[in-house]
Amino acid sequence: MKTILLAACFLLLAAEAQAVSRYDPTRMSCDRVQATIARQGAVILRYQSARVPGLPLYDRYVRDERFCNAGEVRARAYVPSVDTRSCMVYVCKRPDFDRRFRRRFLHD
Length: 108
Known about the structure:
Elements: H1 2-17, E1 21-23, H2 30-40, E2 42-48, E3 56-62, E4 73-79, E5 87-93, H3 97-106
Parallel strand pairs: 1-2
Antiparallel strand pairs: 2-3, 4-5
């Protein structure tokens, strides 16, 4: 019985991970991309690279830090959309403390 309960818990976790919606921002206006992220909290945006033809790019974009993992912060990112090449959105990233340290103490 414990095995069945444990398996059911894992299935629920897997289903929750698959619940993030996926969109192509190049088929949406920038306002619609931002509104979709604001409404859903976190989405995956997938689009083709402008530099390397045929290379798909994708990432998970979030409304705020509540949708980031522990130790991550919200950082600005830009994605293409129908009406602009640089629609501002947010992505979760680990802070780079080492870079700030080098900039502050090694370049003075």
